[in-house]
Specification:
Helix content of chain B: over 70%
Chains: A mainly alpha (about 300), B mainly alpha (about 260), C alpha/beta (about 400)
Number of helices of chain B: 11
Oligomer: heterotrimer
Structural class of chain A: mainly alpha
Strand content of chain B: under 5%
Strand content of chain A: under 5%
Radius of gyration of chain B: 22 Å
Strand order of the largest sheet of chain A: 1-2
Largest sheet of chain A: 2 strands, antiparallel
Distance between the termini of chain A: 50 Å
Order of helices and strands of chain B: HHHHHHHHHHH
Structural class of chain B: mainly alpha
Shape of chain A: globular
Chain lengths: ~300, ~260, ~400
């Protein structure tokens, strides 16, 4: 392809502009990440020294998965639960903001984002106050007479909320909500309000309007929202630390423990890579889902009965 | 939408907001608490004393300032590097733009713990003592992707005809860029800076692996849970909330500065 | 994109801002200027990595002329409105610039923080570290500590005989005790509804989910093994298995709510815990706020531990460190510290000094601070573990605490 001298100069400029950032990414991200692979197959030379020796030590993976396999599954389960719960809350909220927000939309979006600008740890500490045995949430549950029901459903453990899976999922959901609402609002903004009006004119109730108009048209945004929520949730450290007990530990806690407490860098690297592989699989699955979606007839197809 | 659907929508939205703001309400409330002992976790009684002495916890204040300085430096670095990359990718479009775009997006898809482990082993291999330098390097790295992608999106939503119009009026490409595009980029730069700043300010996982003995605010708070939760923690956090709220309101007419804008 | 009003008669150009200063731009510039003037000093400070202020924990290079000590939090008497604390008084008395950092929370994580530097042969910024004895033992065996300048610490002769020459530092050259204490059972008598009698109470189903154990492995396992009738002065892996199993079962069943560091205190006060494994001095301090808190040294035995001062290799201010050690071993000063933290002081003569002052007389007869013969009978020290043994124990313990 022939390029004009001007175009050539522009390309030269491009690489100069890209160079520092690329250097940063390569040296601080790509190379260390790749370096985790040989590290995960190494063994430490001494317990308190830092040298390791590469020795194709697949046992790091076997041991890691053996000991922490359940923790990994638990992390995925918690992430899935909190994302599902988050979606149940985020979709209506996003619809309300988009279709009822009017000129308050930017402010409402800002209000959704604002909590995530406060310190994550302070929020977790405040959750422990809220969910404590003598705290207001349990007080409310008791006042409403729902304690037995909570126990029966497994949401409460003998009337306790703190240091239970419920508490961890609640904390995760609260953290992930903004990252679900935002992409959904953006996706919903692409839906012309008139489709909904047309559906209403055709005597479709609110649920059918959602199912036949909003849901199909917002699905592309949903994919990115899911990913943005699932992956950080699975790798969360703070919520299980403050709101969970030893039976609610998640994979990131385990990796931190392996590295900073047990001083086992190779095993920590192995677990970290397993986690990364898991997220790549998730992304690939969602990519496949989006591709299938587009093949079947994408967002332009309303799929009216 | 009327009637039951409308009511349900309002209810669920209220629940969502409740879940979002429950810890915030507790935080603001407890900033007015007079704790009995070392841990400001149980409501005792109302007082204004904490607000009269927001800096009473010296170690907290120091950690706060450290985080502030670090976040500022990381944001500047990230926006600088990321901005240059965004410009190159959006405007100049060299070959391999897509691959580079993918590389930029990759850190966003890893859980932080993976990044933290990689950085930890990198600094060990390089024999770099963990401290302010390694913190800055780490923070600027994960902010870089967010900043670059935010600016890339802003540039993409740009009308190139404005610059062309300026050039038609006699401006050189560089001058056109400087006097037309750059001022219009300010909201995007602001958004990218705020985003990077808040990400760095609140980072826990990566900091805990790369900070060495430097104490950032999140690291201080994690330790505080074990020794003393002074009411100043809630006071300072409420102040941060107020400042963020004000900034958000100021930035709103310029466009939402969402944390992960598509 | 808004249209701005035309300037001097030209038609509006979309997207181009007028050059007349707008209120928003002015506010923004003001804000940036203010932010810059506030943030520039700490930014420069953080970049240079130097200390400033009394509690600045950013790691420094030389920190010229400053004595730096790292210790556990709330392990020294603090400044009261009418009486300055030990750190302030030391600075005033000696003129030495002391930076006293309370940045050790979890001993193992602290080791992970200092390990890279010491392993690479680089000195730390600290001149003295107050460490749990097992970590001190590890540092000594790795050769990462300097011998203490005890020739300049005549008051070291005041060390109580029990704590002299531990097995892991037989000539007492590398370590000088800071405080000693007991790991036992802390409980809220209102929450338990009764007095507790031993470790078995932690496994009482009535207390299910309101019990915690310590992440400090030797304290938790020590108590459990003692309850199992084992000898912990020479802890054997085989002998530990039943206790490990018991702990694991309790964890899986939900008997144990959490494994904690110092944060069992939060939960005791907030009512989330009825009983837990805790430390004597902490509970003594807490009981002043919450009189329902009790501390029990079990009949089967409590674990006696000691935290010691060590000097990391390459410490830059050994003389200043010697002055500090000598100062805190002065019985009067030691008594002040003991009265505040309520642990077992390593300095002789403290009990008499406390007894003389009516304000602290009660402490002088506190068996947790000055164990009487009966209590001493029930105290045991957890013996040393070899490197490989320790790895095995830590791994099993981590599998239990980390799920």
């Amino acid at each position: 392809m022939l390029r004009s001298p001007r175009a050539e100069r522009r390309l030269g400029w491009a690489w100069i502009l890209l160079a520092p950032g690329l250097l940063w990414l390569t040296l601080l991200y790509l190379l260390p990440l790749l370096g985790l692979v040989p590290l995960s197959l190494s063994e430490p030379l001494s317990r308190f020294g830092l040298e390791t020796r590469f020795s194709w030590r697949l046992a790091n993976y076997a041991d890691g998965l053996g000991t922490y396999g359940p923790v990994l599954l638990r992390s995925v389960a918690f992430a899935a639960l909190s994302t599902a719960l988050g979606l149940l809350l985020a979709y209506p909220l996003a619809c309300a903001i988009r279709f009822r927000g009017g000129r308050w939309q930017p402010l409402l979006i800002g209000l959704v984002v604002l909590p995530s600008l406060t310190s994550y740890l302070v929020r977790a500490i405040c959750w422990t106050s809220l969910l404590g045995d003598n705290g207001p949430v349990l007080g409310l549950v008791a006042a409403l007479g729902l304690t037995e029901l909570g126990n029966g459903l497994g949401l409460l453990r003998d009337g306790r909320l703190l240091n239970t899976p419920t508490a961890v999922v609640l904390g995760l959901t609260s953290t992930q909500l903004p990252f679900l609402v935002l992409p959904l609002v953006v996706a919903l903004q692409r839906i012309d309000r008139r489709f909904l009006e047309a559906a209403a004119d055709l005597h479709a109730g609110p649920w059918r309007r959602f199912r036949l108009v909003v849901w199909p048209l917002s699905r592309p945004g949903l994919a990115s929202a899911l990913l943005l929520s699932l992956i950080p949730a699975a790798g969360d450290v703070v919520n299980p630390l403050f709101l969970g007990g030893p039976n609610e530990r998640m994979i990131a806690n385990a990796i931190e423990n392996l590295l900073l407490v047990q001083l086992q860098a190779p095993r920590a690297a192995a677990l970290a890579l397993v986690l990364m592989a898991l997220t790549l699989v998730l992304m690939a699955l969602s990519g496949v889902a989006v591709w299938l979606q587009l093949r079947r007839g994408g967002p332009d197809d309303l799929a009216l009965p | 939408m009327r009637g039951f659907g409308s009511w349900l929508l309002a209810l669920v939205s209220a629940l969502a907001f409740a879940l979002l703001y429950a810890p915030i309400v507790v935080m603001v409330l407890f900033s007015f608490n007079a704790p009995r002992g070392r841990f400001n976790l149980v409501w005792q009684g109302f007082t204004l004393a904490n607000w009269r002495q927001p800096l009473a916890d010296a170690a907290l204040t120091q950690a706060f300032l450290t985080s502030l300085a670090l976040a500022l430096a990381a944001a500047v670095l990230a926006v600088l590097l990321g901005g240059l990359m965004a410009l190159a990718l959006e405007r100049l479009r060299p070959r391999g733009s897509r691959a580079i775009g993918l590389l930029l997006a990759l850190p966003l898809t890893n859980p932080e713990i993976v990044l933290a482990t990689a950085l930890f082993s990198l600094f060990v291999d390089l024999n770099l003592p963990r401290g302010p330098l390694t913190l800055l390097l780490s923070h600027s790295l994960f902010c870089l992707s967010y900043a670059a992608l935010t600016l890339k999106a802003r540039l993409a939503g740009f009308d190139p005809s404005l610059e062309l119009a300026a050039q038609d009026l006699g401006a050189t490409p560089l001058a056109a860029f400087r006097r037309v595009t750059l001022p219009l980029l300010v909201p995007g730069l602001l958004a990218a800076s705020l985003l990077s700043f808040s990400l760095s300010f609140d980072d826990y996982v990566i900091s805990s692996f790369t900070a060495g003995e430097t104490v950032t605010l999140p690291l201080y708070l994690a330790g505080a849970f074990q020794r003393e939760i002074s009411p100043q923690i809630q006071v300072l956090s409420t102040l941060v909330l107020l400042v963020s709220g004000v900034l958000l309101v100021l930035a709103t007419p310029l466009g939402p500065s969402g944390r992960r804008s598509n | 994109m808004t249209l701005h009003p035309p300037i001097s008669g030209h038609p509006p150009v979309p997207g181009v801002r007028p050059t007349v200063p707008s209120r928003r731009r002015f506010l923004r510039q003001l804000g940036l200027a203010a932010a810059g003037s506030v943030l520039a000093p700490p930014l420069l400070q953080a970049c240079r990595g130097q200390g400033g202020g009394t509690a600045d924990p950013t790691s420094g290079g030389g920190g010229g002329g400053e004595l730096v000590i790292s210790s556990f939090p709330l392990y020294i008497d603090t400044d009261e409105p009418d009486a300055p604390g030990s750190v302030a008084r030391f600075r005033a008395d000696t003129g030495i610039q002391l930076r006293y950092l309370e940045d050790i929370n979890d001993t193992r994580q602290f080791f992970a923080r200092i390990q890279p530097q010491l392993a690479a042969g680089r000195p730390l910024s600290q001149d003295l570290l107050v460490l749990t004895s097992w970590l001190a033992q590890r540092l000594i065996s790795l050769g990462w500590v300097e011998p203490l300048p005890l020739a300049e610490v005549p008051n070291a002769a005041n060390l109580i005989p029990n704590l002299r020459n531990p097995s892991w530092d037989p000539k007492g050259r590398y370590s000088l005790p800071w405080q000693s204490g007991i790991a036992g059972i802390a409980y809220n008598i209102k929450a338990t509804g009764r007095e507790l009698t031993g470790v078995d109470d932690l496994f009482d189903p009535a207390l299910k989910g309101r019990v915690s154990a310590l992440l400090e492995m030797r304290d938790t396992m020590g108590l459990l093994m003692l309850a199992d009738g084992q000898d912990i002065s020479a802890p054997s892996w085989q002998a530990a298995q039943p206790s490990f199993d018991r702990l694991e079962r309790a964890r899986r069943d939900g008997q144990i709510r959490r494994f904690t560091g110092n944060d069992y205190q939060n939960d005791l006060l907030a009512g989330n815990l009825a009983a837990c494994i805790g430390w004597s001095g902490d509970v003594a301090q807490l009981a002043q706020e919450e009189p329902d808190l009790r501390f029990l040294v079990p009949e089967t035995g409590g674990v006696l531990w000691a935290d010691v001062m060590v000097m990391p290799k390459g410490a830059r201010h050994p003389q200043a460190a010697a002055r500090w050690m000598n100062w805190v071993y002065e019985p009067v000063e030691a008594a002040r510290i003991a009265a505040a933290v309520q642990y077992i002081s390593p300095v002789q003569g403290v009990q008499e000094i406390l007894a003389r002052d009516p304000a602290t007389a009660e402490l002088a007869s506190n068996p947790l601070m000055f164990p009487d013969a009966a209590t001493q009978q029930r105290l045991r020290v957890f013996g040393p573990l070899s490197e490989s043994e320790e790895a095995r124990w830590e791994e099993r313990f981590a599998a239990i605490t980390e799920g």
